[in-house]
Design goal:
By secondary structure, this protein is mainly alpha-helical. It has a domain of 53 residues. 55% of the residues lie in helices and 0% in strands. The chain contains four helices and no strands.
């Protein structure tokens, strides 16, 4: 009796161990990279390509310099200049006021 119980438990353990490897992870959609991430990637690749072959760089220093460039690029003054350079788009006037509902009153009988 006890031997069969042990065998049953061992079989259950084997089944559970086998099924542990088949757990599926939920695949999530990747978010679009932010403007900062795109800027960092672009600037880092520029710096990396400008190095001589086999040249080494200190990533911390490079990233610090790129972050400074980002900060300068996104100051209020440069944002205003960038907005001034953009062409002005015609804006449609949208009627935001909805017509009132008409409620008919019925006579109480």
């Amino acid at each position: 009796m006890e031997d069969t119980r042990i065998e049953e438990l061992q079989k259950r353990i084997q089944v559970l161990e086998a099924s542990m490897g088949t757990v599926r992870k939920i695949k999530r959609e990747k978010r679009a990279p932010s403007a900062y991430n795109l800027f960092m990637r672009e600037e880092f690749s520029k710096i990396k390509s400008s190095l001589p072959e086999g040249g080494k760089i200190n990533n911390q220093d490079v990233l610090r310099d790129i972050a400074k460039k980002w900060k300068v690029k996104n100051t209020p003054e440069t944002k205003k200049e960038a907005e001034e350079d953009k062409p002005v788009k015609a804006v449609k006037a949208v009627n935001s006021v909805k017509p009132a509902k008409v409620v008919k009153k019925t006579a109480d009988i």
